[in-house]
Amino acid sequence: MTTSSSLLNLFFLLLTFTIKLKFAIAGGTVKDIDGNVLNITSKYSIFPSIENHGGVTVAKTGVKNQLLVVLSSSALPVTFTDSNSTKAILTDDIVLVNFTNIPKYNGSSSWIVIYDKSAKVPYVAVGSAKDYPSHQIKTGTFKIESIGALYKFVFCSDIANTSCKDVGVYQENGGIKRLALTGDALLIKFKKDSI
Ligand SMILES: *[C@@H]1O[C@H](CO)[C@@H](O)[C@H](O)[C@H]1NC(C)=O
Ligand SMILES: *[C@@H]1O[C@H](CO)[C@@H](O)[C@H](O)[C@H]1NC(C)=O
Ligand SMILES: *[C@@H]1O[C@H](CO)[C@@H](O)[C@H](O)[C@H]1NC(C)=O
Ligand SMILES: *[C@@H]1O[C@H](CO)[C@@H](O)[C@H](O)[C@H]1NC(C)=O
Ligand SMILES: *[C@@H]1O[C@H](CO)[C@@H](O)[C@H](O)[C@H]1NC(C)=O
What is the pLDDT tens value at each position of the chain, 195 positions in all? Predict the structure, then answer.
């Protein structure tokens, strides 16, 4: 090996290390209300930051097989998967959110974002493209961002985070409160499920 090539190797090694270090610092951990870091093995309930305002759960609509993600009186636990394969859930990482305790919805219990005539904005639903043949599926991924001691979900249509939209709440004429890509971000907190 020549000196220049080993220097080059060292350079790339350092570069990789620096990039890794940068990434490690970039994403903070997501913590539950007890101060424990969220991990991929536990189940969590998602609550709005305002006390006694229910929790995030599912709701059926008239539309066949459609399962919406809504804010209602109680929370249905979810699990998170971090796409960086870390056991801890980090902010700014792409996360999969899956409801637990519901039947697999045509093979999927994941959150997705869909679009149809029933709402003026894209909203969060459960399942896969197979479940929504007559809807438009919005391509993108969820991330958790921290806001002080609280968190919010964002939905990003690219990895570079240049086109992320806050997940807020959409309600039409006193109807169900859908989680949707509209308005102010829904500020949330996580509580580990005892089961
Ligand atoms: C996940 O977090 C819970 C509490 O927050 C803890 O009891 C459990 O051991 C953690 N699991 C792993 C694999 O870190
Ligand atoms: C992996 O983590 C880094 C830093 O936390 C983040 O910038 C990057 O977007 C993550 N990658 C994915 C695919 O989530
Ligand atoms: C969440 O759902 C997706 C899509 O159905 C699946 O690929 C993934 O394995 C699920 N994750 C967990 C932790 O169940
Ligand atoms: C989804 O599941 C429902 C019932 O659970 C079924 O009627 C429907 O055909 C399924 N759709 C697809 C595309 O598999
Ligand atoms: C990603 O986008 C969201 C929504 O615009 C923003 O709150 C967040 O700070 C951004 N994260 C990074 C790492 O730029």
Answer: 455 555 556 555 544 444 444 444 456 999 999 999 999 999 999 999 988 889 999 998 777 778 899 999 999 999 999 988 889 999 999 999 999 877 655 567 899 999 887 788 999 999 888 888 878 899 999 999 999 999 999 999 876 667 899 999 999 888 899 999 999 999 999 999 986
How many Å apart are CA 101 and CA 152, to the nearest integer? 23
- The residues spanned by each domain of the chain are 43-192
CB hemisphere CA count around 92 (13 angstroms): 11
Ligand 2 pocket at CB < 6 A: 23, 26-27, 83-84, 90, 92-94
Looking at residue 95, its amino acid is V
Give, as one character, the DSSP assignment of residue 122: -
> What CATH class has 43-192?
mainly beta
| Ligand 1 binding site (Cβ under 6 Å of any ligand atom) | 36, 39, 41-42, 87, 192
pTM to 2 decimals? 0.78
Of all protein residues, whose CA lies closest to atom 7 belonging to ligand 2?
23
186 Cβ below 6 A of ligand 5: no
Which of the listed residues 20, 80, 93 should we mutate to test ligand 2's pocket, taking the one with most ligand atoms within 8 A of CB? 93
